Amino acid sequence: QVQLVESGGGLVQAGGSLRLSCAASSRTSAMGWFRQAPGKEREFVAAISWMAGSTYYADSVKGRFTISRDSAKNTVYLQMNSLKPEDTAVYYCAAGWTVVTARTKADYWGRGTQVTVSS
Fold it and tell me: Rounded to whole angstroms, how far apart are CA atoms 18 and 1?
């Protein structure tokens, strides 16, 4: 069982930045971030493979968010810039044995961290 612990959420004004972290208890093949806004389904945000460092992004965050990894710390980061009110959601870290670009590809989930962007 892989444990995932997110941190770094909070309240920020539109145009601001936040960095989320996700520490994994052990390594899988890939990790990613999803988000879920009230009344909406959980959606893919970004993913990264541990070995090659290949990255994947949802169109809605391309150019604003950056996913990265620190292999020594088994930690993945999501740097979020130019935040918009529509980015407000609970952000979940996910891990899996394939590239985690869809909910069905995630085998493990964190508990989530709230990100709120005020206008």
Answer: 29
Count CB atoms within 10 A of the CB of residue 8. Answer: 16
Tell me the β-bridge partners of 30.
49, 96
Q: What is the pLDDT along the chain (119 residues), one digit of tens a residue?
A: 999 999 999 999 999 999 999 999 999 999 999 999 999 999 999 999 999 999 999 999 999 999 999 999 999 999 999 999 999 999 999 999 999 999 999 999 999 999 999 99
Report how far residue 80's alpha carbon sits from residue 64's, in angstroms, rounded to the nearest whole number: 6
DSSP state at residue 38: T
With CA atoms as reference, report the closest residue to 69 among 10, 105, 1, 23.
23
d(CA 56, CA 76): 13
Q: Which helix (H) or strand (E) holds 10?
A: strand 10-13
Rounded Cα–Cα distance for residues 25 and 1 (Å): 9
